[in-house]
């Protein structure tokens, strides 16, 4: 084993031209006299070449995807979105009748089942679910009073009071122009909201859409310091995710971005809620509003609540509702041009590289 | 487009220079998309086919000895057409409808080369994916990112470079075994 180890090291140094001339002559002699070593050199050269080519190709492929999204957004190549939608409409028309029948059967079944479940399930207090927005530091009463006094003094000398953010969550971009998705509960009762980018800079945002039922909110960054990225690396999935699909999330349970991984454990949420899905993942206050991504780099949900009576049971709003939220939003002409990324450009990357690309698009949401 | 400009673009492509790739993409994608959509494909299919043709061209452009004996767009069109035809044949459809004024070149050999490279790529991908951590990152750091063993042992938390080297050796042997076990069974 030690010998093989040493030999392979020599072979690599030989291939990479890192041997001294003397060593090289000696090694070439060895190669000539020993066919096994000769074979090893040939095989290893081939293998190293394969590894390099693999990496090279991977980079080229992901570059192509980037370029495709870029050009489509700029309108330099014919937009593919319209055709996709035209096809959906075609299919909808074609299967309308079947779908209507299926839906009514499903509806009746769902009603029956939920009635049954309701009648036999024990009443659970709402407290079983905890919203995962986090309270910023332990601002106790005394501090608050001190802060108030300081503000009063500041007011007297005529400067605007600095905002102390008390709670927070996570949000992520769905459009390069600065639209962010987060949970509605993260920004509930907010007086001031800001988002913090990866440089630690606070950016001003305005709330443009809130849907309390689905616990979804859309914010718009309105700050001159915001630098719009060219495109969003991940896409938002329209269809439901699959059971047992491995997923991961990024969020701000503390001041640094934190990564967590898990899997989709149920297609419905707490007590069979069909708006959400259940995920087994470690999440803490502050993770609220964070994206849940699958291995292709597609957002499948928005992390929202966790079950307090069980560990690692987390519920996420399904990503398709981002589309319905955006449709509502687009009734306002100002947002008609918003296009969500439909293909993920990080599909072929490994997890580390995916996270590296995504983390610039995930923001900390700070609320006072 | 002049020959000089095409040569420059091709050289840029060989270096994976973003501007060159983007220029070629922009000039040729619509043409291939039109072909695929006219022949029962979706725009998603068109994207797949076109990107595959770009990869074929990229493989060619990387080798110094390569000389393109037709225009870039003729080559990309011919390759895409061939790839799409192949896809259609798998679905038992043979006809291809197209504008008659599109020039074509013979690309059989290029496609054959590409298929071999593609198979090897998939073998390597499968091998690397079944390798698991920390092997995957360790080999990536050394062979792809070309970081030094000292650096790697520090960032992975090994006590010294020799231990990291031993681990790297074990990982490499596992990867080679995984790769060659597939490669041996592969008949081109």
From TrEMBL, chain A:
The lineage of its organism: Bacteria, Pseudomonadati, Bacteroidota, Chitinophagia, Chitinophagales. Belongs to the peptidase S1C family. The chain crosses the membrane at residues 98-120. Residues 129-156 form a coiled coil. Signal peptide: none annotated. This is Serine protease. The keyword DNA-binding does not apply. It comes from Paraflavisolibacter caeni. Keywords: Coiled coil, Hydrolase, Membrane, Protease, Transmembrane, Transmembrane helix. GO terms for biological process: proteolysis.
From TrEMBL, chain B:
Residues 25-93 form the RNA polymerase sigma-70 region domain. It comes from the Bacteria. Keywords: DNA-binding, Sigma factor, Transcription, Transcription regulation. Pfam families: Sigma70_r2 (PF04542). The keyword Cytoplasm does not apply. Transmembrane segments: none annotated. One of its GO terms (molecular function) is sigma factor activity. One of its GO terms (biological process) is DNA-templated transcription initiation. InterPro entries: RNA_pol_sigma-70-like, RNA_pol_sigma-70_dom, RNA_pol_sigma70_r2, RNA_pol_sigma_r2. This is RNA polymerase sigma factor.
């Amino acid at each position: 084993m030690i010998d093989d180890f040493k030999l392979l090291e020599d072979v690599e140094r030989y291939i990479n031209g890192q041997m001294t001339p003397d060593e090289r002559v000696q090694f070439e002699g060895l190669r000539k006299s020993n066919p096994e070593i000769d074979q090893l050199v040939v095989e290893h050269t081939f293998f190293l070449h394969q590894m390099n080519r693999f990496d090279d190709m991977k980079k080229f492929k992901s570059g192509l995807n980037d370029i495709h999204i870029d050009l489509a957004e700029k309108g330099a190549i014919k937009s593919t979105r319209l055709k996709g939608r035209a096809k959906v409409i075609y299919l909808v028309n074609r299967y309308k009748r079947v779908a209507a029948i299926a839906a009514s059967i499903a509806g009746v079944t769902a009603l029956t089942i939920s009635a049954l479940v309701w009648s036999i399930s024990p009443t659970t207090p709402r407290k079983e679910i905890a919203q995962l927005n986090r309270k910023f530091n332990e601002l106790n009463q005394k501090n608050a009073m001190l802060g108030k006094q300081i503000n009063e003094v500041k007011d007297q000398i005529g400067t605007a009071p600095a905002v102390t953010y008390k709670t927070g969550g996570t949000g992520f971009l769905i459009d390069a122009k600065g639209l962010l998705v987060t949970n509605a509960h993260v920004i509930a009762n907010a007086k001031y909201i800001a988002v913090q980018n990866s440089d630690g800079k606070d950016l001003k945002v305005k709330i443009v859409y809130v849907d309390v039922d689905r616990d979804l909110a859309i914010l718009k960054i309105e700050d001159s310091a915001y630098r719009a990225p060219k495109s969003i690396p991940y896409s938002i999935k329209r269809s439901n995710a699959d059971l047992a699909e491995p997923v991961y999330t990024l969020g701000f349970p503390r001041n640094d971005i934190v990564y967590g991984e898990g899997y989709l454990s149920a297609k419905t949420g707490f007590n069979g809620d069909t708006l959400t899905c259940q995920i087994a993942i470690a999440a803490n206050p502050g993770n609220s509003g964070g994206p849940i991504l699958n291995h292709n780099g597609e957002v499948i949900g928005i992390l929202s609540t966790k079950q307090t009576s069980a560990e690692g049971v987390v519920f996420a709003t399904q990503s398709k509702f981002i589309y319905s939220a955006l449709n509502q939003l687009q009734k306002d002409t100002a947002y008609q041009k918003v296009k969500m990324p439909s293909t993920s450009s990080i599909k072929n990357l490994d997890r580390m590289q995916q996270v590296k690309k995504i983390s610039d698009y995930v923001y900390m949401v700070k609320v006072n | 487009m002049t020959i000089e400009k095409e040569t420059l673009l091709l050289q840029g492509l060989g270096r994976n220079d973003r501007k060159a790739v983007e220029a070629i993409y922009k000039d040729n994608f619509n043409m291939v998309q039109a072909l695929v959509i006219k022949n029962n494909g979706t725009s998603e299919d068109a994207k797949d086919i076109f990107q595959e043709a770009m990869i074929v061209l990229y493989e060619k452009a990387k080798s110094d000895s390569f000389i393109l004996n037709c225009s870039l767009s003729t080559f990309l069109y011919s390759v895409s057409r061939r790839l799409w035809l192949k896809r259609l044949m798998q679905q038992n459809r043979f006809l291809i409808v197209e504008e008659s004024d599109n020039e074509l070149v013979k690309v059989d050999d290029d496609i054959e080369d590409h298929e071999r490279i593609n198979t090897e790529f998939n073998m390597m991908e499968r091998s690397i994916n079944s390798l698991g951590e920390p092997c995957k990152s360790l080999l990536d750091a050394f062979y792809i990112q070309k970081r030094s063993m000292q650096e790697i042992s520090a960032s992975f938390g090994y006590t010294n470079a020799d231990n990291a080297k031993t681990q790297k050796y074990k990982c490499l042997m596992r990867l080679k075994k995984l790769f060659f076990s597939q490669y041996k069974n592969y008949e081109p």
